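Encode chain A's predicted structure.
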Amino acid sequence: MRIDAGKSTRYCDGASRRSFLQLGMAGLGNLSLASMLRAKDASRRQTGNAKDTSVILLWLDGGPSHHDTYDPKPEAPSDYAGIWRPIKTNVPGMDITEMFPLQAQLADKFSILRSVHHNAGDHFTGGHWMLTGRGGVSGAMKEGKSPFFGGIAARVAGPPQVGMPANVAIPYAMSIGLRPGYFAGNYLPVEYDPFQVGGDPNQSNFRVQNLNLASAMTIDRLANRRALNRNLDALRRNFDRSPTAAAMDQFDHAAFDLVTGDKARRAFDISREDDTVRDRYGRHTWGQSTLLARRLVEAGATFVTCHFGGWDSHWNHQETMLRHLPKVDQAVSSLFQDLEERSLLDQVLVVVMGEFGRTPKMNDGGNGG
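Encoded structure for chain A:
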């Protein structure tokens, strides 16, 4: 089921696309968890146990200006240099925007890849390239063609810890107004689409919708359905003696444990974090989403995406950047500090990117590039 969340996001192609919260059916079928876990087991049998590494992607949806973030042009003429001055970081020769003072103190913890590029000026083409590594879409043909990197990670590696979803989106998976858009598994089975949290972790009543049972469903009723399912499986196995059928119980058990067990529920419970930590990340959706991502990878998720939308700044560019950049600086710097304090820097890859950057000269009367 989809419900209109009431927020409208405008992109420079003139379209107005509503943000949707997607509520799945309660229970095990919605997540295809048993299928996901079987796929994980099959891949591990082929490749052996993988190192417990994870990825946190902070997706700046809409195309952030690289000149106003990580790639300022201090030697450029004033018409091309951008609004803000560059500042030095703790890495000699690496300058970033003055709007990122916190990250400037931690630049030895990250790398800036200024050579990553594609030639597309279309949001959809650029988004598909950056999230899948493939072309083939445009504003006229928006449908995704290739699987998102996170879906591939879920297919190949699965979660390092049983009881955790491998591929998670906070608060939802959306690219260029499309849901799940280029975060989908596409030609992979639907179980490799992201597990969408579906709520704002900055809200006091935050709940993970896909871990909550429907109003008419109780744990006992779910357990009864599971028992019925096992009985039906037992009848089927009288005719099917394959190893896959014999192994079904363990996967069904793991899927049931994800919905009814404590591991994922505790990881998603951001209220367990100390207030000082939550304050450091920022009491806003982006900051708390980033903190939740850290909790999830620490608990065993493989790939977590945080959606930071609203970067198509042809309209009121300076005001938009003044709203967005401090929140990004606070969230990213806190994440690196947190990962270092928890000895997770070598296990977690943090990626901050959007579908493309911006042309160097202001256009539209100074409203963007």
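The longest helix spans residues 317-341.
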